[in-house]
# Entry
Amino acid sequence: MSEERKKAIGTILEAGFQMESDAFKALMEISAPGHLDPLVKEVLRVAGTVVPRPASISRDLVLRAAEHLDISGKTLDADHSGLGHGRRFAEDLESRLEVVSDPTGKLGTTGSFDDFLRYFRSRFDKMSLLFRQRMDTRNAGTISDALSGGSNGRGRFICMVLDKREKGDRIFLTVDDYEDEATVLVGRQNPTLYEMARKIVRDQVIYIQARKSAGPLLVAESIILPEIPDRKPVHASEEIYAALVSDVHVGSKVFLEDEFRRVLSWLKGDIGTPNQREVAERVKYVLIGGDLVDGIGVYPRQEVDLAVPDIYEQYRLAAKFVSEIPEYMDVVLIPGNHDAVRQALPQPAIPKDFAGPVYDSRKITSLGDPAEVRLHGVHFLLYHGTSLMDILSGVPGLDYQRPVEVMEYQLRARHLSPEYGKMTPIGPEQEDFLVVERVPDVFTSGHIHVSGAGIYRGTTIVNSGAWQGQTDYQKRMGLIPKPGILPVVNLKTLDVKMINFQ
Ligand SMILES: [Fe+2]
Ligand SMILES: [Fe+2]
# Structure
């Protein structure tokens, strides 16, 4: 008896069923070598629905299961394994989607001076709490303590960086902790510290240990970022997948329609290598990370890049694509800077006024940006990525072709848009929704149109690339996208497969 057959019988016995000899014969007749496993799974699923529970698997039960898989009475063809056309693994698995956080409905700022003060206070308080929960920084004092420590006295404090100036081989940080302000000097004597200080941006909240000089200056001895702890992430108990789509840009002249249609065909089980089809069969979640459409007037002279210059028509076309995602999959949608919703972060969910056809096309969980969800227990932080270019331009050593490092920077800073007042508009809400308060198991973004994946301290980082070729605007800016690649996260292992649809 082949290993595969032995394993099939073992699986059935382990599930607590006896096997009738006719049933065994039917099982062997119906399934082709290498394809017994899906049939056995379906047999067990069907047996589980029978009341009262049968003691043994009958021939009839095997035939019913085969019917579900659409392989009854015919031998499986190795190239058309039926994986795509019968009952699919994810189809029979109940969805476990929980929304952990969503800014929609919680936003409202008048942009007054008081609002700005409250916003930064919220940032400082949230970040201070993160430091107070850490063993090595929980005993932080204040700037005032450090300043009154006397010459060569030491102090440690949590502070917000108000300004950073580089003069020769020295960096001066002006810092504030809502009680006092001080200037902190970072010299080149300690190269690691100096390199770290170079990467600090304005408005970031950090922990500093400093020595007081003879004058009013504090001299930095160490700087600690809020960081995420190194830990073991949560894994799903089943092998189930989330496909990450973002930056589709429907309506753009260079929307990669053929490639995107292939993604939908793959999700439906119509195309793919046997391995890819096996993954498609287990996709339960499709996450759309913003820039579903190209929008109107997002950047200067965008009209020359548009094939569809009407925002309503763009969403109508997008809805057609979205409606093709198999019904049993859960779709989560967040906005991007090209979507028809307020541009300032955090963004609420895309309103129905514009994207009505998308909402009507199928069931969708529509959230703001950023948002957090749990999928089969795995905690996802979903963020479109609007601030990634700001971080790239403000922090030395980063490169847009390596998006994972930029996202790692955000996790270390525990903030999605550390520097205020650059290209990314931020609404001065009562609460800073951009602080990374909870450590995600998976952190996903898009926006820079370059896909990538990596792991930082247990968190899987994924940038989901794009489905748009190079626009004239990107050509002018010298940006080379890497589109047409779909990241798919295995929620059991948190491994990321990059499927190339180019
Ligand atoms: Fe985009
Ligand atoms: Fe974007």
